[in-house]
What we know:
The chain is of the alpha/beta class and 216 residues long. It has six helices and nine strands; from the N terminus they run E-E-H-E-E-E-H-E-H-H-E-H-E-H-E. It has helices spanning 31-40, 85-89, 104-108, 110-120, 147-157, 173-191, and strands spanning 5-9, 15-25, 49-51, 53-63, 66-75, 94-100, 131-136, 161-165, 209-211.
Amino acid sequence: MATRAKLIKGPMDKKEYLFKVLVVGECETGKTSVITQYVHRKFENNYKATIGVDFALKVLHRDKKCLVRLQLWDVAGQERYGNMTRVYYKEAVGAFVVFDITRMSTFDAVQKWKADIDEKVVFPGGQNIPVVLLANKCDLIEEGFVASHLDRYCEERGFLGWFETSAKENINIEEAANLLVDEIIKIQDKQEICNFPDNDNVLLTPHIEHSKGCKC
């Protein structure tokens, strides 16, 4: 079983972190595409819908003395309406909330996803995990999103920050991930969350099912 954040001292005091990060948002916002671009450096036009949860692993060599393994948990868009998110969220230390910049209905649901995360997963002491907002599919619009609006929105609702992203064009995905990882490491080092007990953790290999449908 995995801890929510694990720190291993390697050779010559090399730090190796293991972080569980959620990727959530409404159906067809491009969550799976974002993960695939970030992890595998590729984009595909057709995806099967994620049912339940899927996950991928990204290894980051931050420097000669720091290695980070990110478990990116791809949570299906319809899961906010079910009871399983509490299980999927458990032991997470960070999250991305993704919306489709071309469909404002997916932006309207952003705060519901953020509230769901805040309610179901916190650090000891009650601190919320850091969450970054992704305004995805920016390659499909001619003009940029209104930055001042989202700056204020994120500040008021407790997001760490936001980025216009494109999984197709690989825009700002790595930058968003770096911001989130930097914040998680800062919290990790400050609170020493690597020492959490293993009593109530989730398995790394949940049951995964796929079916044809919307691209999530």
